Amino acid sequence: MSKFRKKKSNELPAVNTASLPDIVFMLLFFFMVVTVLREDNLLVQNKLPKADQVEKLKKDRSVYIYAGKPSSRYQEKYGSEAKIQIGDKYTDITNIKFALTEARQKLLPELQDKVMVALKVDEDTNTGMVTDIKQELRDLNMLKIIYITTPGNEISQ
Amino acid sequence: MARRATPEVNAGSMADIAFLLLIFFLVTTTIEKDKGIARQLPPREPPTDEQVKIKEKNLFIVNVNRSDQLLVEEKLMELKDIRQAAIAFLDNGGAPSGTAEYCSYCKGNRNPESSDNPDKAVISVQNDRLTSYKMYIAVQNELVAAYNFLRDRESERLYGWKFTEKSKDLDEGKIKGEAAKEALQEKLETVQKLFPQKLSEAEPKKSGQ
C-alpha cells in the first residue's frame, strides 16, 4: 500500500509555459493582419455626429473629405474657422475639384466610376459648408456620398 | 578535431520579444468602423422651365433653423417626435379606395388631407446655412428610420424577415451563392418600391432671407 503513497508530493507542479510564445505569436499575427495604419493625418477636429440607421462603407472605392475646425495645435496658424481637408492638406472650397480629381486617380481604375465620397464632418460645423461641398460634388458628377457617423442616437442622450 | 555539438539557442526571451511586438500592434490598431448614412445627390441638369408639381398634401416639409429648432408642417416639433410624424405621413394612404392611387398596404389614418400614397409622398428638408451638422444628421437619421420602420413592417408581412437585417446581411457578405443574392436583391427592391425613399433637400437659405 505504501508503494503508491510515495509518489505524492506536497508541492504544486509548475505550470508549463512552453506554449506561451506560440499563443502570443498567434495573437501577434492576428493584430498584424487586421491593423490598418492611418492613412491621413488629421488636421481638423473630427467628432462625428451620431446615427443608427447606417450602412457600411466600401473602403476600396472611397475618397475622404474631412471638415471641421482646425485641430488645437494648428489653430494658431490657421485660425478657428472651419476648414476642409482632403488627403494630407487643407483645401479651399474653390480648390476642391482639383483635389478630388487627384484623390480619385489614386483608386483602382475599374473602381473610379463607382467612387463614393465619404464625408467626415465635425458635428459643430455649419450645414452651409457641407452644402457647398455637395454642390462641388454635383459639378464633378460624384453623386454617391456617405455621411460618416458614429453609432448612437441623438435622442436617447 | 572533436566534433562539437552546436549549442542550442536560448529561446527563453522569444516570448518577451513577441509580447513587445504584440503590444505595439495592439496600440496602433484601429479596427475600421466607418459607417454612415448613404445618399445619392441629384445630378446637375440644365435648368428647365418645367416645374414638377407636387400637391401640397403630398409634401412633408421639415424646416431646421439656425438655432437647430424644427418646424414640421408649420408646427414646432421636438426631434424625438419627428420619426412618428414622418411614419404617419408616409403611411397615410389618403387616396380613396377604388382609385389607381389607392394604397392597399397602408395602415395609416387615411386622412384625405395628408399624403395619397407612399409613392407620391415626398419629404422635403430645408436647412439654414447655420444649422449645425449634428442636427442635420440627426434629422436625416430620424427620417431614414421612419422609412426603415415601414420597410421592415412590409417585408415582415410579405416574407417574414426584416428588411434592414437582410440588407445588412447582404452588405456584409453573409449571403452565399449568386442565385440567393439575386433573389434577395429582388425581394429587397420589391419592398423598396412599396416605400420608395423620396427625401428631397432644398438649397439652404442664408440666415435672414
Automatic annotation (TrEMBL), chain A:
The keyword Transmembrane applies. The keyword Manganese does not apply. One of its GO terms (cellular component) is plasma membrane. It is found in: Cell membrane. One of its GO terms (biological process) is protein transport. InterPro entries: ExbD (IPR003400). Its main location: membrane. The chain crosses the membrane at residues 12-37. Pfam families: ExbD (PF02472). It is a single-pass membrane protein; Single-pass type II membrane protein. Keywords: Cell membrane, Membrane, Protein transport, Transmembrane, Transmembrane helix, Transport. GO terms for molecular function: transmembrane transporter activity. Belongs to the ExbD/TolR family. This is Biopolymer transporter ExbD.
UniProtKB/TrEMBL annotation, chain B:
The keyword Transmembrane applies. InterPro entries: ExbD. GO terms for biological process: protein transport. One of its GO terms (molecular function) is transmembrane transporter activity. GO terms for cellular component: plasma membrane. Keywords: Cell membrane, Membrane, Protein transport, Transmembrane, Transmembrane helix, Transport. It is a single-pass membrane protein; Single-pass type II membrane protein. It is found in: Cell membrane. Its main location: membrane. It holds the Pfam family ExbD. The keyword Transcription regulation does not apply. Coiled coil: none annotated. Belongs to the ExbD/TolR family. This is Biopolymer transporter ExbD. It comes from Aequorivita lipolytica. The lineage of its organism: Bacteria, Pseudomonadati, Bacteroidota, Flavobacteriia, Flavobacteriales.
